[in-house]
Amino acid sequence: MLAIAGLAVIMASCNTNYEKTASGLTYKIFKGDGKQKLKMGDIAKITATIKITPRDSILFTTGNHMPEYIPIDTATKQTHNFDEVLKLCSVGDSLITVSQVDTLVKRGMMQYNDMFKRGDQIVTTIKVLKAMNREDQAKDQQQEMENEKSREVAALESYLKKKGIKAEKTENGAFVEILNAGADKVMPGKQVSIKYKGSLLDNGKVFDSNMDTTFHHTEPYSFVIGAGQSIRGMEEGMLKLGNGGKGNIYIPAVLGYGPPGSPPVIPAYASLKFEVEVLNVTDAPPAPAMPQGMQGDPRMQGDPRQQGGDPQQQQDPRQQQPQR
Fold first, then answer.
1. How many other CB atoms are found less than 10 A from the CB of residue 286?
2. pLDDT at position 290, please?
3. Given phi > 0 = left and psi -120 to 50 = alpha, else beta, which region is 92?
4. Distances (CA, A) of 274 to 189, 196, 210, 318
5. Cα(144)–Cα(140) distance, integer angstroms
6. Alpha helices, DSSP H, located in the chain
7. Which residue positions in the chain have pLDDT lower than 70?
8. Which residue pairs, CB below 8 angstroms and at least 24 apart, start in 65-70?
């Protein structure tokens, strides 16, 4: 995939080879050796990097992690986004697009904020790896997720070993450094109330805490284990502790915020560390009564993390607030 840093040089060397869509999106397709053109209904397996210029800050990248899966809609028109021209690519092609934040704001598609400012550009680079149908996507994506999980867990285990940190591994690959095991061990279905401090593992930057007033909330954080009210790594880590317990929970990205992260505070594919203190372990509060006629609705049953099916159809995590 082409480096964003070289975009200006490439554009200068290509001169008029760069094109514009009707919406004003600047783009260039670099042809590969593939002959399979993307068509309506295909799922494109891609690697991608999205940066905001001129600050050159990374908004999203697949890096050396999982690819993305993008449905192709050949009827898409004037979105001022990469999907305007991705449909013109073939397998093996690379693509660069440049969106204007001012244009997107003018069209009501976004608002100026701390991340997107006047005059900014969103530069996207894409490499098309494969085209497939929905059934093949599900199998391919599952395998990629397993590969990603193995890489992340191995990297986290290596990090702890180098740091001399003795930690117990959870079922899916979080690690808990137990400082005080506590009593009345946390069990699935129980509600826990905790104090916590969350930081990025690679640089130690604290992104949230209720241990002091830095983030303007000091109330205990309470959630029910197994109810999907917290990230998976936190839920699994809590099972190693009990009432009054203290420890550090190390969470690979796949059990945290995964590929999207939670911009701007948590980058894509960020492994995390949570310092936790268990204040209380109690029975879960009774579930709210369902409205009459809803008791048999399957949408109201089961683990919410298992609902929704295809992750591409779920709410974009990049639009959500960080979930402990």
1. 6
2. 56
3. left
4. 21, 6, 11, 21
5. 6
6. 7-14, 83-86, 101-106, 134-163, 232-238
7. 1-16, 289-324
8. 65/148, 65/151, 65/253, 65/259, 65/268, 65/269, 66/144, 66/145, 66/147, 66/148, 66/259, 67/129, 67/144, 68/259, 69/43, 69/44, 69/45, 69/137, 69/140, 69/141, 69/312, 70/43, 70/44, 70/46
Residue 161: both structure tokens together = 């070993």
pTM for the full model?
A: 0.75
> What is the rounded CA–CA span in Å between residue 287 and residue 181?
29
Residue 275 and residue 206 in contact, taking contact as beta carbons nearer than 8 Å: no
Show the beta-strand stretches assigned E in 4-154: 19-20, 26-30, 43-53, 57-61, 68-71, 94-100, 121-132
Buried/exposed code over 233-258 (b: 16+ C-beta within 10 A; e: otherwise): bbbbbbbbbbbebbbbbbbbbbbbbb
Residue 54 confidence (pLDDT) = 93
Residue type, 291: P
28 Rama class: left (phi>0) / alpha (psi -120 to 50) / beta: beta
pLDDT tens readout for residues 29-69: 999 988 899 999 999 999 999 999 998 888 888 988 999 99
Select from 214, 170, 167, 218 the least CA-distant residue to 194.
218
Task: Report which of 182, 211, 189 is spatially closest to residue 274, judged by C-alpha positions.
Answer: 211
Topology of domain 4-134, per CATH?
Answer: Chitinase A; domain 3 (3.10.50)
Residues 87-121: tens digit of each pLDDT: 999 999 999 999 999 999 999 999 999 889 999 99
Q: Which CATH number fits domain 153-286: 2.60.120.260, 3.20.20.105, 3.40.920.10, 3.10.50.40?
A: 3.10.50.40
Nearest CA-CA partner of 150 in 253, 270, 266:
253
**Which string of DSSP letters, residue by residue, matches 148-187?**
HHHHHHHHHHHHHHHHT---EE-TTS-EEEEEE--EEE--
Hunting for tokens 């069990």 — which residue is that? 187
